[in-house]
Design goal:
Layout lengths: L2 H63 L4 H18 L9 H7 L5 H7 L2 H16 L9 H13 L1 H6 L1 H20 L2 H12 L8 H19 L14 H4 L2 H25 L3 H9 L1 H18 L9 H10 L7 H14 L7 H18 L5 H17 L2 H12 L5 H18 L4 H25 L2
Amino acid sequence: MPDQQVAKLLRHRIKRRIRHLYLTAAQWRNRFPIWLAAILIGLVACVFSAGSRLAHTLFESIYAHSPWWSLLVTPLGLGLSVWLLKTFFPGALGGGIPQAIAALEPGTLLLRERILTLKAALGQVFLTLIGIASGATFGYEGPIVQVGAAIKYSLNRSAAIRNEGISRSLILAGGAASVAAAFNAPLAGIVFAIEEMSHGFDQRATTTILISVILAGLTAMSIEGNYNYFGITSVTLDLQQGWIALPVCGLVGGFIGGLTSKIMIRMANRLPGPLQRMRLHYPVLFAIACGLVVASIGIASGGTTFGTGYYRAREIILQGGDGMASYGVLKWLTMLVSFISGAPGGTLAPSLAVGAGVGLNISSLLPQLPQTALILLGMVAFFSGLTQAPMTGFVIVMEMSDSSTMIIPLMASAFIAASVSRFMSRKALYPELARLLLRRTRFVEAQIDQASRAP
């Protein structure tokens, strides 16, 4: 081969190798912010979890000193949270999940620039912890979804603005990684992103979601260890004798969950006359009034209904919940009142606590069956009825309680409950709340645009 051809071939190989190295380096530069965001989500989830426990402990110590302090702490805490929301953190509104779902819609750049910022994420963490420290029925597991989506979006903002597909992938991955890190349930995070947020399989987002869930989950596990959210239960349910538990839990949980979803959607849209006017024109005073109701119910329950409901649900699962027959109903009431108060906070963990109370009540009707099994079925049934997301429901409960032997019963109750809920209403809770948020946002944008065009 002539020397000129050898030199030409050598130059071609060198150019190809340099081009390959350049493209590889560019891919690493593009992926690094995504990986870094996933690690940060795991860290924030741990901080959020520790802050939630500290806030709950703080309120418990105040309540232990005197139950009547809650009549001051709870109203002022909710009022302060709403005032800070209106004054400093307007992007931190709501429970987190509807906001992340709304941001998935195409053409919502202005909304994303408001709710998917690091300031909004900081506000969501801070205000949710204020709500928990006030004793309101809030959890951090819903707000962390918006926080995770905000971290993903903010660290990859330029790419997200240029490409709608990338933006959607980042928001889905942020939500999935947040659920995985918050509950130590990686499979639940993936299912949550597919079923609850995107309502379908998004091929383009698959790799981003998987990597984000893995990195966020590993980060959280390295800090808090490998734990089960609601403890380890080895209960089994003999379906030859206990098959009746599946339709009973599915029907009861689905009916109550579906009814709760309809009530929450209606209350989010509009309250009865005077209450709606008070919520619109005097939001801080309205939040204070809601706090008084929550505190009064908490005192009447002996303090059991204060807080996220995590500790009570864990107690019901692992210890049986003696003397807590009214817990499900009272916790349901405080969840609704906390929801309409306008203070930021999630309903994901509280809904599981309400479901535990429902399961406890059902177990009194079927005393011949294992109580713990019925409690788990009640949890998954109420959650699935509330959200109309049966796969997410049974996967979350299965992973959080290490109840792998209950897979088939949990699946059956979840699907029965979701079917009952859909029969009652075609509108699922979180997507409908996201639709209401989008409608209000577009109305405000239209008013601003109209004002800007006026002479």
